[in-house]
Write a structure and sequence with these properties.
The chain has 108 residues and is of the alpha+beta class. Helix content is 28%, strand content 32%. It has helices at 55-65, 89-107; strands at residues 12-21, 24-31, 36-42, 45-52, 70-71.
Length: 108
Amino acid sequence: MAIDLNLEPVHIKTKKQVGTVNSKPVWELQTTGGLWVNVLGKGAGFEVIGTGPHRGVARYISEQKQPNVQWSDLAKADWHDPASFAFILPKYIAFTDALRERQLTLDE
């Protein structure tokens, strides 16, 4: 999957810290287009750990990529039975993996 995601500040609707992984902050970004992205802070950089059309989907994928994630920002409406969004998981897992792969090539 070829990908070129250039997010500018104007594309970010919300940004907030929602948890940690081994004391490193996990940030949640919502784009103006409706994409939710979870990133793990790494010094001056970051690592994409989950994406989705809903924050619950992005968090589910994040938990698959980083099983020791600790969420500090929780809401009942954020949890959905994974069976209810299983049909879109392959698409967003592939998208997350493509973003992660793109990051690796940029970091080298």
